[in-house]
Task: structure prediction
Amino acid sequence: MPFDPVAAGRLPAGVRLVEARRHADKRGWFMELHRGSLVAGGGAAGDAANDALPFFCQDNVSLTAAPAAVRGLHFQRPPFAQAKLVTVLAGAIQDVIVDLRPGSREFGRVTSFHLSASADQQLFVPVGFAHGFCSLQPETIVHYKVSAPYAPAAEGGILWNDPDLGIDWPFTAAEVLVSEKDAAWPRLRDLAPIEWAA
Ligand SMILES: Cc1cn([C@H]2C[C@H](O)[C@@H](COP(=O)(O)OP(=O)(O)O[C@H]3O[C@@H](C)C(=O)[C@@H](O)[C@H]3O)O2)c(=O)[nH]c1=O
Result:
């Protein structure tokens, strides 16, 4: 049974599960992934789901071919720090975030989510978290909107299996496929504090 942080009452401050609405008909279905606003700081009128989400300037999509591939744990440093709105378009993932906000009572805390294409839930991750996921099904497609553009020089990360994090990944290290870049990130204890507001 996947961990359910909402049922457990343990959603970190600022993190949200956004309910998307699926309009089904005889052809299939239609869904809005995000509706922005022309009014600064506001969500679309009458659309509580989008209230207070930041402006997103880039859309990303990745295909992960097989289960047991881990991408992460990633963040970008200021001034390119990114909030993310994550949607699974096909397959399923274990999505993992790590609170990296200095001074947060939850610094270093891991929260895991089960996200899938069949559940109409998106995950909003604010600035200040590392983010990663593990594919659980073949041909898993993940879409995410980000609030700052890709900036390779600002990329940072934490080792996906840092023992101090104790992430309960559903596969062993021998089973997991990671990129060379992701295998080389430091452990959390070796990461200098990040001033996100800069
Ligand atoms: C993230 C990113 C990568 N790329 C390029 C760089 C590289 O050649 C190729 C693959 O990049 P990566 O290996 O970093 O891709 P990936 O490991 O899928 O990176 C992503 O992981 C998840 C968990 C996130 O949260 C994202 O923000 C992002 O960091 O795509 C872009 O052109 N734009 C981008 O925004």
Q: What stands out?
A: Residues 60, 62, 71-72, 74, 131-133, 150, 179, 181 surround dtdp-4-keto-L-rhamnose (CB under 6 Å). The chain is about 0% helix and 35% strand. The longest helix spans residues 180-183. Residues 63 and 141 are 4 Å apart (CA to CA).
